[in-house]
Specification:
Blueprint lengths: L1 H11 L1 H17 L3 H20 L2 H5 L8 H18 L3 H27 L6 H23 L22 E3 L15 E5 L16 E5 H21 L5 H17 L3 H6 L5 E2 H17 L3 H11 L1 H6 L4 H27 L1 E3 L7 H11 L9 H26 L2 H40 L3
Parallel strand pairs: 2-3
Antiparallel strand pairs: 1-5, 2-4
Helix pairs in contact: 2-16, 3-11, 3-14, 3-15, 3-16, 5-6, 5-7, 5-14, 6-14, 8-9, 12-14, 15-16, 15-17, 16-17
């Protein structure tokens, strides 16, 4: 029985384990310092985590990976265009852009959901093609309508000597949208035996410096207390309780070593951004416990049974796509305020591909996904993005190989997920036919 469990675990988590191995090997050969890798990884998680989490609801509803989240990203970029045109700066501008994104993404999500309801069983390819079609409409809107039919008066927004929106929209400088959310609240750590200046500089207006060891002790204690409370209330199993307690103890032990402490020397955590990501994780958990969440699960498990139970299947699926599209728009705003500029005609194109690959790397499937899988996948996928080029340069003398490998992995992991989904479906049908044959049906 134990061997079977191990085999099942390895089979169900093959992609994740492969990426863990690749990340370990590539990190070892990259020659990059752990502190720099941690700095880059934190930045990427803050930048991309929200968008990956936006994929969960459609997967739960049985619609697979919603590659049409690129449409939500387009809605966000329309919102940013008008914020720049109206010259609304800082966090106020980001909030206004989010306000514009909501109705646009809701409309786009509704139309996408109506179309995908006509393509049941083919939602993934349908959403991908829909994204390509929407991109064509977006290009027409930004090249011809904006700046021509609808005039734009802000300098730098229109292509010089022509019409249409400029190739790049600058969010830094006068716009003050760079780090509009990231900069609301940051935390640096004061290393043991050092001054704040030696631990990453003095605190700014929105930056707080916390002592590293006491902070870890408090966080580990809170995690242990929460785990104990949930275990006593029978909300978590004994295995999960032991895992959480062990992780808390290991974190406290690990942070005692100078090598681990040095990793925190470069970190400046965008607490406000991670709070927004945590809020989305909480929203996903709470939503799936509501009546709507139960309907989403029922539709994802079996549309026929859900329809017989009185659930409006088509309406539920549309709601799932609308939620995902709106959340993707918010995620694109978080991404772009971290980058500091908008590649007007390309920033949205790879959103669905990279987010889909990341969530699959974390152990999710086309039929099941959780917050932990989305976040784990984001960590592994972007860690590989960081260390692959220097590792390829060390191993093969050409950093370009690492770039090609990243693109190969992005498409390959999605292809593998599709193959596994079809294989599991065929295996399940074979078991059902065998059971019916044994019963003489």
């Amino acid at each position: 029985m134990g061997d079977w469990n191990v085999k099942t675990f390895l089979r169900n988590n093959a992609v994740t384990l492969m990426f863990v191995l690749l990340c370990v090997v590539f990190t070892a050969y990259s020659g990059m310092s752990p502190a720099y890798v941690a700095f880059e990884l934190i930045s990427r998680i803050a930048r991309n985590g929200f968008i990956v989490l936006a994929l969960i609801i459609p997967i739960v509803a049985g619609m697979g990976i919603n590659f049409a989240i690129s449409i939500g990203a387009m809605a966000a970029q329309i919102g940013l265009l008008w914020v720049l045109e109206w010259r609304i700066t800082g966090i106020t501008g980001l909030v206004v852009a989010a306000g514009i994104t909501v109705p646009l993404a809701t409309l786009f999500g509704f139309l996408a959901g109506k179309l995908l309801n006509k393509m049941k069983g083919q939602e993934m390819i349908g959403s991908m093609i829909l994204g390509f079609f929407a991109n064509g409409v977006y290009q027409l809107l930004f090249l011809f309508i904006f700046g021509n039919v609808i005039p734009l008066n802000t300098p730098g927004l229109v292509i010089k000597g022509s019409t249409g929106v400029a190739n790049t929209m600058n969010l830094s400088g006068p716009a003050q949208l760079l780090y509009a959310l990231d900069g609301l609240l940051r935390v640096r750590f004061e290393l043991p035996g050092s001054s704040p200046a030696a631990s990453g500089g003095t605190a700014g207006q929105n930056t707080f410096i916390l002592p590293l060891l006491p902070t870890f002790y408090v966080l580990a204690g809170l995690a242990a207390a929460a785990a104990l409370s949930m275990y006593l209330k029978k909300r978590v199993s004994l295995t999960k309780f032991v895992v959480i307690m062990s992780a808390a103890v290991l974190a406290v032990v690990a942070v005692q070593f100078p090598a681990v402490q040095s990793v925190f020397s470069m970190l400046s955590l965008p607490v406000a951004t991670f709070a927004v990501i945590a809020a989305l994780c909480l929203l996903n958990v709470v939503l799936l416990r509501t009546r709507l969440g139960q309907q989403l699960r029922a539709v994802g498990q079996n549309r026929t049974v859900a329809n017989a139970s009185g659930i409006n299947v088509d309406r539920t699926r549309i709601i799932a796509i609308i939620i995902s599209t709106v959340l993707a728009g918010f995620g694109q705003l978080i991404f772009l305020q971290n980058i500091g500029n908008v590649l007007t005609y390309g920033a949205h194109e790879q959103v669905g591909l990279y987010a889909g690959a990341a969530i699959l790397v974390g152990g999710a499937s086309i039929a099941r996904a959780t917050n932990s899988q989305a976040l784990l996948g984001c960590v592994l996928f972007h860690l590989l993005f960081i260390v692959a080029p220097p590792a390829a340069n060390t191993l093969f003398g050409d950093p370009g190989i690492g770039e090609y490998f990243r693109v190969f992995v992005s498409y390959g992991v999605i292809a593998l997920a599709l193959v596994l989904h079809v294989w599991k479906g065929a295996k399940a049908k074979k078991v059902i036919r065998a059971a019916k044959g044994a019963q003489g049906i």
